[in-house]
Recover the amino acids of this structure.
């Protein structure tokens, strides 16, 4: 009986093919790509994400934004493994409702951040493969950004990029918003218009160089008047 | 279907790599650390806090995985507060070290990575606790990937009779030299001082400035040496 492994055909170098048993271990994780960005201003916060959902060489969807509205003053951006992103946002929504029912008030951004840290750490030995960034307004009305690692370590920042293009975007933000590594430059405070324009420019650059980022950009601007969403097209290739 | 048994291979790297140090002297306990949080090659955060206050008279330096250190310090703070409420007195630094060590023991053999020094002011006040089970009392510790470089500066300069300024200067210098040679340490240096009145924190200092000051000093030295030789 001809075995498929032995059948080489004319000219095929079958003696160099590995012909033994191969064990493919099931991995419970997948990488679905996507980039998330958050910027905190004096009285506003911006959370932006691309809308491409990919896996390997394929694109599953061009319209899968990664920003999720939690409260009127808080938006979370989650990128990484889409299955864990969905479950995590469901769990956060449930915990927000429970808090509202027992304490009769909405959770503040800082409280949501602290809670998310414990939710992520509860799965320390089988982590949620999600890079989270929370953007919102704190109790004083100032912009706040909290960035997380997959197991719950977090801190408050002024700006942060997460996801597949984060290593490309973070240095650009350090320079443009943090004025790092520049001399003789005036440190002007960031206005809302300038911040939104910067976010758009930065994502256009990310879409050029990162294959997992593209299709469209969803920007959520959080102010005391509410959350304003806009969608801007990006490269589709 | 079989449940997933054993550790799941992670698709992402954890944050590691640091230089922290702590030593005792006549003015109390001094703790210093860098602020770089790295994730196998990428600087995840250039301004993280590696010295965490646990209560008014106890600080802990953290080394290992950021999330593990942050959460376990939080758990330790909670347990110490509960002890204080139940027994009406504060637990000593030695007791806090033993408590942390015993809380980490069930996780021995897992990938938990916590290497902390507890710096307090109730009796002998410096302990090193590690997630592999080590618990040591001492007067000088340095932990992390940059610790060999820090140890060389500290072993040369630390004495019991140092003033607060001298001790701060040595601690800063040790972290600065370690950040210069160790790729996984860098950015800023935090210095905390613990005395009988509690802990105080020095303003965070950017080591980039220190590097440029030293470069300028060396350049001036070379110039004066050059003119002296030629003159």
């Amino acid at each position: 009986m001809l075995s498929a492994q032995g059948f080489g055909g004319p000219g095929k170098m079958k003696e160099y093919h590995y012909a033994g048993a191969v064990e493919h271990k099931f991995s419970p994780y997948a990488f679905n790509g996507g980039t998330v960005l958050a910027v905190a201003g004096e009285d506003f916060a911006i959370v932006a994400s691309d809308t491409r959902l990919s896996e390997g060489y394929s694109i599953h969807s061009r319209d899968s934004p990664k920003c999720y509205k939690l409260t009127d003053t808080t938006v979370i951006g989650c990128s990484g493994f889409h299955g864990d992103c969905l479950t995590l946002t469901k769990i956060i929504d449930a915990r927000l409702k429970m808090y509202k029912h027992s304490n009769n008030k909405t959770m503040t951004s800082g409280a949501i951040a602290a809670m998310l840290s414990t939710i992520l750490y509860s799965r320390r030995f089988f982590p949620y493969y999600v890079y989270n960034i929370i953007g919102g307004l704190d109790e004083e009305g100032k912009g706040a950004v909290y960035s997380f690692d997959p197991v719950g370590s977090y801190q408050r920042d002024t700006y942060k990029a997460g996801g597949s293009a984060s290593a490309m975007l973070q240095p650009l933000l350090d320079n443009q918003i943090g004025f790092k590594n520049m001399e003789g430059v005036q440190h002007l405070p960031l206005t809302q218009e300038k911040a939104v324009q910067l976010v758009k420019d930065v994502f256009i650059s990310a879409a050029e160089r990162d294959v997992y980022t593209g299709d469209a950009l969803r920007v959520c601007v959080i102010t005391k008047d509410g959350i304003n969403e806009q969608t801007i097209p990006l490269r589709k290739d | 279907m079989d449940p997933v048994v054993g550790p799941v291979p992670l698709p992402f790297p954890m944050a590691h790599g640091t230089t922290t140090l702590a030593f005792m002297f006549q003015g109390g306990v001094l703790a210093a650390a860098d602020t770089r949080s790295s994730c196998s090659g990428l600087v995840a955060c250039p301004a993280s806090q590696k010295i965490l206050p646990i209560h008014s008279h106890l600080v802990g330096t953290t080394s290992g995985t950021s999330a593990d250190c942050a959460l376990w310090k939080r758990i330790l703070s909670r347990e110490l507060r509960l002890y204080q409420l139940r027994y009406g007195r504060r637990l000593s630094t030695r007791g806090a070290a033993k408590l942390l060590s015993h809380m980490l023991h069930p996780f021995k053999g897992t990938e938990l990575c916590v290497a902390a020094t507890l710096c307090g002011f109730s009796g002998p006040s410096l302990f090193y606790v590690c997630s592999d089970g080590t618990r040591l009392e001492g007067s000088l510790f340095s932990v992390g990937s940059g610790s060999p470089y820090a140890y060389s500066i500290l072993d040369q300069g630390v004495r019991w009779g140092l003033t607060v300024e001298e001790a701060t200067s040595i601690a800063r210098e040790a972290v600065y030299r370690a950040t210069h040679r160790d790729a996984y340490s860098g950015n800023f240096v935090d210095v905390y001082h613990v005395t009988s009145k509690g802990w105080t924190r020095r303003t965070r200092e950017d080591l980039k400035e220190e590097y440029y000051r030293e470069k300028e000093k060396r350049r001036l030295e070379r110039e004066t040496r050059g003119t002296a030789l030629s003159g």
In short: Chain B has one domain: 20-229. Confidence is low (pLDDT under 50) at residues 1-5 of chain B. The interface with chain A takes residues 4, 7-12, 14-15, 37, 39, 42, 44-45, 48-49, 65-68, 70-71, 110-112 of chain B (CB under 8 Å).
